[in-house]
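Example 3.2
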Amino acid sequence: MSAILYPVAPNAECALSAPLGRAARASEALALARGEVTFVSEPAGPAFDSYEAALAAWGGRIDDGKPGHTVQPADRYCALREVVSGPVPRRSSKARQARPTYANGRRWSPPPTPAPTVWRLSVSYWRIVAAGELEALEQARKARRRAGDLDAATLRALARQPLQPVRPQRPLDIGLFEFRPPDAPHIVMPDE
């Protein structure tokens, strides 16, 4: 089985039209980009109301399972995803118990309408990280210690990144069914 060759590009549109190259592993992507890369999956192209319309538009990039419409295993870096198109209805912070309405011969009111969705092409690729963005990818604690006031763009970049551990997690020194007695905390005893 061959590996998927993901495009190396600065954004999703370039990954579809003109990538720098394609790489299966991060080391290959680093060599192509001559800099830092990160693996991302982002939407690209227009939104479609139905799956069939999106499949018709992106037919050469999506494997739909029909005979003659297969995509090579190395080229399967695109997928169709259903995403919310409008504002998501917010629920109140206090959840209330539903009350029966007994209207029009029905006991309960109709459920709320779901948010409207559209189909978009999702492209997985190696995104080239710019030098300024690398600096913004530092963890928030380090950035706050380094500079007291941060500009809005740096704060947005910090908020979008996942949290990283300060240090590696230590292994547990006692098992699940063991405990330390209060009068002798240096001893580990089995709990049966």
